[in-house]
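can u do me a favor
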């Protein structure tokens, strides 16, 4: 079994909305944890060389941005505070597709096949939560002024 993950999905949203969901902390806090019962905090300076810290209850993952090309690409390192090994890398590629945005997530250089399997399970749950953001009813700001 590989130590790399590859997940491809088409999300029902514009490429700008999907990119925002990956790059704005206030949106990341709505989906970026596989366990919605954990307290989720996100700090992110989304520029090349900028850092991020994601706190999911007692679990902390952090890294730095390697590539930032709005609205098409984010690449960053990934390292759990509890892990003494080298960081892995995550790459999120976005492109327009029929019905929304094609998202390709690759997570490479995970230390073991078992670790890759655990991360795959976590990403699948998180990406389900991300997709749900785009299917939830949107509030109409004009209705608030009426």
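np, heres the sequence
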């Amino acid at each position: 079994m590989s130590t790399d993950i590859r997940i491809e999905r088409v999300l029902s949203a514009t490429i700008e909305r999907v990119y925002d969901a990956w790059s704005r902390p206030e949106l990341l806090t709505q989906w970026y944890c596989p366990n919605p019962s954990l307290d989720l905090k996100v700090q992110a300076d989304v520029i090349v060389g900028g850092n991020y810290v994601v706190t999911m209850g007692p679990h902390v993952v952090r890294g730095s941005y390697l590539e930032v090309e709005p609205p098409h690409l984010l690449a960053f390192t990934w390292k759990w505070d509890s892990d003494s090994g080298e960081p892995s890398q995550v790459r999120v590629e976005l492109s327009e597709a029929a019905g929304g945005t094609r998202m390709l997530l690759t997570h490479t250089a995970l230390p073991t096949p078992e670790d890759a399997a655990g991360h795959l399970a976590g990403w699948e749950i998180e990406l389900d939560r991300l997709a749900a953001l785009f299917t939830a009813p949107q509030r109409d700001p004009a209705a608030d002024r009426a």
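Residues 75 and 91 are 4 Å apart (CA to CA). hope that helps!!
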